[in-house]
Amino acid sequence: MKRLALTVTFVVAACALPALARAAGNPDADFASAQSAYQRGDYKRTITLLKPLLYPSIRLSSADDVLAAHKMLGISFFFEKDNAAADNEFLAILNANPSYALDPMVDPAAAIKRFEIVKKRNADKLARIAAAKRAAELARQKELARKRALSQVVIERETILHPFWVSFMPFGIGQFQNGHTTKGYVMLSLQSALGLTSIGLEVARRVRFEGGVGQNSSDRALADRMTTASYITFGLFGAAVLYGIIDALAYYTPKSTRERRYRKKIADALIAPTGAAVPGGATVGVTGVF
Predict the structure, then answer these.
(1) In angstroms, rounded to a whole number, what is the distance separating the alpha carbons of residues 273 and 158?
(2) Is the pLDDT of residue 155 over 50?
(3) pTM (predicted TM-score)
(4) Does CATH place domain 8-134 in 1.25.40?
(5) What DSSP string runs through 250-278?
(6) pLDDT, tens digit, for every residue of 164-188?
(7) Across the chain, where does the E strand assignment appear?
(8) Would you list the domain boundaries of the chain?
(9) At 168, is the secondary structure helix, strand, or coil?
(10) pLDDT tens-digit series, residues 5-14
(11) Cis amide bond preceding 56, omega within 30
């Protein structure tokens, strides 16, 4: 009895092996075999090969192959007189692509007629599906545009024109125009300190000795020292101004370009002219999105 049970089990397993092997086969190879069978008009074989590729789950990787499989399966069911199964396959195609149509140059006229019947019968449903797909595609395009806008980098370039006469101005103005900010602040501080010191000494001397120096030797000596210090600081001020002019002329350029980069958050980025007032010169610029 045990031997009989083992024999029955072996026979059942042997019968199941081809089906299991087919289920675990190569989907691309099975699809190619189904195409060959379909072209030969072997519709039973086509159905046998294609059903496992679509049900219970789709095993084909290409959306085009899936549509082609549904089409071949539907036409095969149609010629095997299973209109209900054929209609289900045609409807699966239309659900994926409501505007799909069979090709009269390739597909049988009788199958095309049945396909069009299914399309007309489900026209309202397919119209809703098509509208939903259009809305989804529009939303997808808007989202892509939004993401592109967020990733856009705006580059603004300004051409700054440098007047030549600015190089002759004191207090580091020529250095600031040349882009030497640190040197400009040094010139500004040094020349301001020397100029104010010279003026302060002269004002203090005149206030202190408003009525004249007189015959007091100590007053005369103090007045002389204040005058000398005022002249020396004024000379140093002049030397600092002269150095600043020479330095500004040495590094002078008629124009320079300034660039600014930032991410644009609005999807209206087109090339547009820009202009801005910059201390020490006029500007001409262009803005672009890349």
Answers:
(1) 10
(2) yes
(3) 0.46
(4) yes
(5) HT--SEEEEEEEEE--SS----EEE---B
(6) 999 899 999 999 988 899 999 999 9
(7) 153-161, 255-263, 272-274, 283-289
(8) 8-134, 157-289
(9) helix
(10) 444 444 444 4
(11) yes
